[in-house]
Write a structure and sequence with these properties.
Blueprint (H helix, E strand, L loop, with lengths): L11 E2 L5 E2 L12 H15 L3 E7 L1 H4 L8 E8 L5 H14 L6 E8 H5 L3 H13 L1 E5 L13 H8 L2 H14 L3 H26 L7 H11 L4 H11 L7 H15 L7
Parallel strand pairs: 4-5
Antiparallel strand pairs: 1-2, 3-4, 3-6
Length: about 270
């Protein structure tokens, strides 16, 4: 799962120790409200009765988005698994239709069974929906979901299979033929690995953040051997710089290091 690149200044931990964010329907900027309505209409038409609930998250939900460079991020929870092939045309249509206001419309999906599962990913989905999402259609699961406190288990729920992702990026990097191909791998890996860094390092040091720049700062402070890699990753997330293949392999070495960290039960 993903989180917004734009920092949410309200994200953190409240006085009771629970995760808090700035996601709220009243914080959606006025410029984006017609876009959200149009996206909701099309998603409901495409998914029909399979749609259990549709949620808005990211910088639009926290009020930090600014046209035209921000993404509009949606999560569809469905009663059955949705084929990614059915989602891609929806994303493409909405991204083109609203190109003047958003850089891209993204539509993530999860089945209700995945959200309610008792495994790592289920915990991650429930925490994400509870704290980072705003309902815009269908059934709102949030009132039934408990607040989450920062923990290694919650961080792992946000972070997926890091080792598997690194293997996939190495395969993609080996197949890259142009600088643009290399940059695409760099940006994808940087976004994900800095999310892993931000959650793991913040939990380790008594807080909570999914902000990539904050994660890079924590990593540099506590593991200075990764400072240069973290600084480059922040640039690549923002579309800055021209990473070489060797640069990206160094980033993937950070991924190897993260994957070797003891897990939540370790």
């Amino acid at each position: 799962m993903g989180c917004a690149v734009t920092r949410d200044p309200a994200e953190g931990v409240d006085a009771g120790g629970a995760i808090v964010t700035g996601a709220a329907i009243e914080r959606v900027p006025a410029a984006y409200r017609p876009v959200v309505a149009d996206c909701t209409l099309l998603v409901r038409q495409v998914l029909g009765d399979r749609l259990h609930g549709l949620y808005l998250y990211g910088s639009v939900a926290t009020g930090q988005a600014r046209p035209p460079g921000s993404d509009l991020d949606l999560l569809a929870v469905s009663t059955s698994t949705v084929d990614p092939a059915a989602v891609a045309p929806v994303e493409a249509t909405l991204s083109t239709r609203h190109a003047g206001l958003v850089r891209e419309v993204s539509l993530a999906s999860a089945s209700l069974a995945e959200v309610l599962a008792g495994d790592r990913d289920g915990l991650g989905w429930r925490c994400f929906i509870r704290h980072y999402c705003v309902p815009v259609a269908g059934t709102d699961l949030r009132p039934e979901l408990p607040s989450c406190r920062p923990s290694r288990a919650v961080a792992d729920g946000f972070n997926d299979d890091v080792a598997g992702l690194v293997r996939r990026w190495r395969t993609q990097l080996a197949a890259a033929r142009t600088p643009a191909d290399v940059a695409a791998v760099a940006r994808c890996a940087a976004r994900k690995l800095l999310l892993v860094v931000s959650t793991l390092e913040s939990v380790e040091h008594g807080g909570w953040t999914t902000d990539r720049a904050a994660g890079a700062t924590l990593l540099a402070a506590h593991h200075p051997e990764w400072s240069m890699v973290a600084r480059s990753a922040v640039d690549w997330c923002a579309g800055r710089g021209d990473p070489t293949t060797e640069d990206v392999y160094r980033l993937l070495s950070l991924g190897d290091w993260l994957a070797r960290m003891p897990d939540a039960e370790g």
